[in-house]
Protein backbone atom coordinates (compact mmCIF):
# COMPACT_ATOMS: atom_id res chain seq x y z
CA UNK A 1 0.00 0.00 0.00
CA UNK A 2 1.21 3.46 -0.79
CA UNK A 3 0.80 6.30 1.68
CA UNK A 4 -2.86 7.08 2.15
CA UNK A 5 -4.36 10.52 2.62
CA UNK A 6 -7.85 11.53 3.70
CA UNK A 7 -9.01 14.71 1.97
CA UNK A 8 -11.73 16.52 3.94
CA UNK A 9 -13.27 19.21 1.75
CA UNK A 10 -16.91 20.00 1.07
CA UNK A 11 -16.41 21.64 -2.32
CA UNK A 12 -16.67 18.79 -4.75
CA UNK A 13 -14.56 20.44 -7.45
CA UNK A 14 -11.66 21.10 -5.11
CA UNK A 15 -11.94 17.61 -3.62
CA UNK A 16 -11.88 15.99 -7.03
CA UNK A 17 -8.96 18.12 -8.17
CA UNK A 18 -7.02 17.12 -5.06
CA UNK A 19 -7.99 13.49 -5.43
CA UNK A 20 -6.85 13.48 -9.02
CA UNK A 21 -3.49 15.16 -8.49
CA UNK A 22 -2.66 13.29 -5.29
CA UNK A 23 -3.51 9.94 -6.87
CA UNK A 24 -1.23 10.83 -9.73
CA UNK A 25 1.52 11.54 -7.23
CA UNK A 26 1.16 8.02 -5.90
CA UNK A 27 -1.09 8.58 -2.89
CA UNK A 28 -4.00 6.37 -2.02
CA UNK A 29 -6.71 9.03 -1.68
CA UNK A 30 -9.79 8.79 0.56
CA UNK A 31 -12.39 11.53 0.50
CA UNK A 32 -14.82 13.03 2.98
CA UNK A 33 -17.21 15.93 2.31
CA UNK A 34 -17.64 16.95 5.95
CA UNK A 35 -15.99 16.70 9.38
CA UNK A 36 -18.71 14.30 10.47
CA UNK A 37 -18.04 11.98 7.54
CA UNK A 38 -14.31 12.21 8.24
CA UNK A 39 -14.82 11.22 11.88
CA UNK A 40 -16.78 8.14 10.84
CA UNK A 41 -14.05 7.27 8.38
CA UNK A 42 -11.31 7.74 10.98
CA UNK A 43 -12.95 5.23 13.30
CA UNK A 44 -11.45 2.58 11.04
CA UNK A 45 -7.80 2.04 10.13
CA UNK A 46 -6.09 5.43 9.87
CA UNK A 47 -4.64 7.07 6.78
CA UNK A 48 -1.03 8.28 6.90
CA UNK A 49 -2.06 11.92 6.63
CA UNK A 50 -5.18 14.11 6.56
CA UNK A 51 -5.86 17.30 4.66
CA UNK A 52 -8.56 19.41 6.30
CA UNK A 53 -10.27 22.35 4.69
CA UNK A 54 -10.84 25.10 7.23
CA UNK A 55 -14.27 26.03 5.86
CA UNK A 56 -16.56 23.06 6.24
CA UNK A 57 -20.31 22.96 6.81
CA UNK A 58 -21.27 21.70 10.28
CA UNK A 59 -18.12 21.22 12.34
CA UNK A 60 -15.39 23.42 10.86
CA UNK A 61 -11.83 22.35 10.10
CA UNK A 62 -10.31 23.94 13.21
CA UNK A 63 -12.71 22.18 15.56
CA UNK A 64 -12.18 18.93 13.70
CA UNK A 65 -8.40 19.24 14.00
CA UNK A 66 -8.65 19.96 17.72
CA UNK A 67 -10.89 16.99 18.22
CA UNK A 68 -8.53 14.69 16.34
CA UNK A 69 -5.58 15.91 18.43
CA UNK A 70 -7.43 15.29 21.69
CA UNK A 71 -8.43 11.75 20.74
CA UNK A 72 -5.75 9.19 21.51
CA UNK A 73 -6.62 7.20 18.37
CA UNK A 74 -5.85 10.14 16.07
CA UNK A 75 -3.57 12.27 18.27
CA UNK A 76 -0.43 11.67 16.23
CA UNK A 77 -2.08 11.81 12.81
CA UNK A 78 -0.19 14.24 10.53
CA UNK A 79 -2.54 17.06 9.50
CA UNK A 80 -2.39 19.82 6.91
CA UNK A 81 -5.04 22.54 6.88
CA UNK A 82 -6.25 24.41 3.83
CA UNK A 83 -7.04 28.06 4.52
CA UNK A 84 -8.44 30.91 2.49
CA UNK A 85 -6.10 33.46 0.96
CA UNK A 86 -4.54 36.13 3.12
CA UNK A 87 -6.45 35.39 6.29
CA UNK A 88 -3.77 35.70 8.94
CA UNK A 89 -6.24 34.77 11.65
CA UNK A 90 -6.76 31.43 9.95
CA UNK A 91 -3.09 30.72 10.15
CA UNK A 92 -3.05 31.36 13.86
CA UNK A 93 -6.15 29.31 14.37
CA UNK A 94 -4.74 26.44 12.44
CA UNK A 95 -1.64 26.44 14.61
CA UNK A 96 -3.76 26.55 17.75
CA UNK A 97 -5.74 23.65 16.46
CA UNK A 98 -2.63 21.49 16.45
CA UNK A 99 -2.25 20.98 12.71
CA UNK A 100 1.29 20.33 11.50
CA UNK A 101 1.19 22.63 8.50
CA UNK A 102 -1.18 24.84 6.58
CA UNK A 103 -1.42 25.84 2.98
CA UNK A 104 -3.22 28.85 1.60
CA UNK A 105 -5.69 28.57 -1.25
CA UNK A 106 -5.12 28.81 -4.15
CA UNK A 107 -2.08 26.56 -4.14
CA UNK A 108 -0.40 24.38 -6.70
CA UNK A 109 -0.82 20.63 -6.26
CA UNK A 110 2.94 20.38 -6.56
CA UNK A 111 3.41 22.60 -3.53
CA UNK A 112 0.89 20.59 -1.55
CA UNK A 113 2.59 17.31 -2.45
CA UNK A 114 5.96 18.75 -1.41
CA UNK A 115 4.52 19.77 1.97
CA UNK A 116 2.88 16.37 2.37
CA UNK A 117 6.13 14.55 1.64
CA UNK A 118 8.03 16.76 4.09
CA UNK A 119 5.43 16.12 6.77
CA UNK A 120 5.43 12.36 6.14
CA UNK A 121 9.21 12.35 6.39
CA UNK A 122 9.03 14.14 9.72
CA UNK A 123 6.47 11.65 10.95
CA UNK A 124 8.59 8.65 10.00
CA UNK A 125 6.90 7.54 6.79
CA UNK A 126 9.27 6.11 4.19
CA UNK A 127 9.58 8.12 1.00
CA UNK A 128 10.15 5.09 -1.21
CA UNK A 129 7.35 3.17 0.49
CA UNK A 130 9.78 0.69 2.06
CA UNK A 131 10.17 0.42 5.83
CA UNK A 132 13.56 -0.94 6.86
CA UNK A 133 14.92 -2.37 10.07
CA UNK A 134 18.13 -4.41 9.97
CA UNK A 135 17.61 -7.20 7.43
CA UNK A 136 13.83 -6.56 7.37
CA UNK A 137 12.23 -4.80 4.41
CA UNK A 138 8.52 -4.08 4.41
CA UNK A 139 7.46 -2.85 0.99
CA UNK A 140 4.21 -0.95 1.46
CA UNK A 141 3.59 -0.53 -2.26
CA UNK A 142 4.10 -4.14 -3.26
CA UNK A 143 2.71 -5.34 0.09
CA UNK A 144 5.68 -7.66 0.54
CA UNK A 145 8.01 -8.58 3.35
CA UNK A 146 11.58 -9.69 2.80
CA UNK A 147 14.51 -10.64 5.01
CA UNK A 148 17.98 -10.23 3.52
CA UNK A 149 16.33 -9.87 0.12
CA UNK A 150 14.43 -13.15 0.44
CA UNK A 151 10.63 -12.94 0.19
CA UNK A 152 8.77 -14.00 3.34
CA UNK A 153 5.09 -14.94 3.42
CA UNK A 154 3.05 -12.83 5.81
CA UNK A 155 -0.69 -12.59 6.55
CA UNK A 156 -2.54 -9.31 5.91
CA UNK A 157 -3.18 -8.55 9.60
CA UNK A 158 0.41 -9.41 10.53
CA UNK A 159 1.51 -7.10 7.73
CA UNK A 160 -0.47 -4.18 9.17
CA UNK A 161 0.82 -4.94 12.66
CA UNK A 162 4.40 -5.02 11.45
CA UNK A 163 3.85 -1.81 9.49
CA UNK A 164 2.61 -0.01 12.62
CA UNK A 165 5.49 -1.40 14.67
CA UNK A 166 8.12 -0.47 12.09
CA UNK A 167 6.71 3.04 11.71
CA UNK A 168 6.97 3.46 15.48
CA UNK A 169 10.12 1.69 16.67
CA UNK A 170 10.61 1.47 20.45
CA UNK A 171 7.11 2.74 21.11
CA UNK A 172 5.00 0.62 23.42
CA UNK A 173 1.42 0.00 22.31
CA UNK A 174 -1.39 -1.22 24.52
CA UNK A 175 -3.66 -3.95 23.14
CA UNK A 176 -6.48 -1.43 22.82
CA UNK A 177 -4.27 0.92 20.83
CA UNK A 178 -3.21 -1.90 18.53
CA UNK A 179 -6.85 -2.85 18.01
CA UNK A 180 -7.72 0.74 17.12
CA UNK A 181 -4.79 1.25 14.80
CA UNK A 182 -4.68 -2.11 13.05
CA UNK A 183 -8.27 -3.31 13.10
CA UNK A 184 -10.02 0.03 13.39
CA UNK A 185 -12.49 1.14 16.01
CA UNK A 186 -15.56 0.42 13.95
CA UNK A 187 -15.38 -3.33 14.43
CA UNK A 188 -15.50 -5.24 17.66
CA UNK A 189 -12.53 -7.51 18.24
CA UNK A 190 -11.48 -9.00 21.55
CA UNK A 191 -8.15 -7.92 22.95
CA UNK A 192 -6.82 -11.45 22.91
CA UNK A 193 -7.09 -11.39 19.11
CA UNK A 194 -4.12 -9.02 19.29
CA UNK A 195 -2.09 -11.67 21.11
CA UNK A 196 -3.00 -14.27 18.49
CA UNK A 197 -1.75 -12.07 15.65
CA UNK A 198 1.38 -10.97 17.52
CA UNK A 199 2.14 -14.66 18.04
CA UNK A 200 1.69 -15.26 14.29
CA UNK A 201 3.94 -12.33 13.51
CA UNK A 202 6.64 -13.73 15.79
CA UNK A 203 6.24 -17.13 14.10
CA UNK A 204 6.73 -15.46 10.72
CA UNK A 205 9.96 -13.82 11.93
CA UNK A 206 11.28 -16.73 13.97
CA UNK A 207 13.04 -18.70 11.18
CA UNK A 208 15.26 -15.62 10.71
CA UNK A 209 15.91 -15.13 14.41
CA UNK A 210 13.95 -11.86 14.31
CA UNK A 211 11.00 -12.81 16.50
CA UNK A 212 12.65 -11.01 19.43
CA UNK A 213 12.05 -7.70 17.66
CA UNK A 214 8.42 -7.97 18.76
CA UNK A 215 8.69 -7.56 22.50
CA UNK A 216 6.12 -7.95 25.23
CA UNK A 217 5.71 -4.92 27.48
CA UNK A 218 4.49 -6.35 30.75
CA UNK A 219 1.15 -5.02 31.90
CA UNK A 220 0.68 -3.04 28.69
CA UNK A 221 1.11 -4.71 25.35
CA UNK A 222 3.86 -4.81 22.78
CA UNK A 223 6.69 -2.88 21.23
CA UNK A 224 8.98 -3.30 18.23
CA UNK A 225 12.61 -2.79 19.13
CA UNK A 226 16.02 -4.02 18.08
CA UNK A 227 17.45 -3.30 21.54
CA1 LIG B 1 -14.65 24.24 1.96
N- to C-terminal distance? 28 Å
Return the domain count: 2
Give me the CATH architecture of the largest domain, please: 3-Layer(aba) Sandwich
The outline comes out as: globular
Question: Describe it for me?
Answer:
- By secondary structure, the chain is an alpha/beta fold.
- It is built from eight helices and twelve strands.
- The protein has two domains: 121 residues, Rossmann fold (3-Layer(aba) Sandwich), CATH 3.40.50; 95 residues, Winged helix-like DNA-binding domain superfamily/Winged helix DNA-binding domain (Arc Repressor Mutant, subunit A), CATH 1.10.10.
- Strand 4, helix 4 and strand 5 form a beta-alpha-beta unit.
- Helix 6 crosses helix 8.
- The protein is globular.
- It starts with a strand and ends with a strand.
- The model has no long low-confidence stretch (mean pLDDT 89).
- The site of calcium ion has 6 residues, from loops.
